[in-house]
Amino acid sequence: QVQLVESGGGLVQTGGSLRLSCAASWRTFSNNIIKWFRQAPGMERELVASITWSGGDTHYADSVKGRFTIFRDDRNYTVYLQMNSLKPEDTAVYYCNADPHWGQGTQVTVSS
Prior knowledge:
Blueprint: E1 5-7, E2 10-13, E3 18-23, H1 26-29, E4 33-39, E5 46-52, E6 58-60, E7 68-73, E8 78-83, E9 92-98, E10 101-102, E11 106-111
Parallel strand pairs: 2-11
Antiparallel strand pairs: 1-3, 3-8, 4-5, 4-9, 5-6, 7-8, 9-10, 9-11
């Protein structure tokens, strides 16, 4: 049973933008913190951004502050990660997480 459905990855040039989405049910998001992680080849999975579903409080990794924005759509139970000013070092597989569930991952590739 799929709990989190991700979409929006792709190939973009340096300086470009992408928007990732993570859709789930009310039951999955309610009273939860929804997080975006990323994992580059040979690297550990790192937390990129998070948002509390109830209050909308956000947190960002230092490496993406000012470039990425996490926000939620209450009506459609979707969390988005808007990524601007992308850099080659942002290349990774991006995962949505709402404990205990994980999305399938979506590839983001930024070409130099």
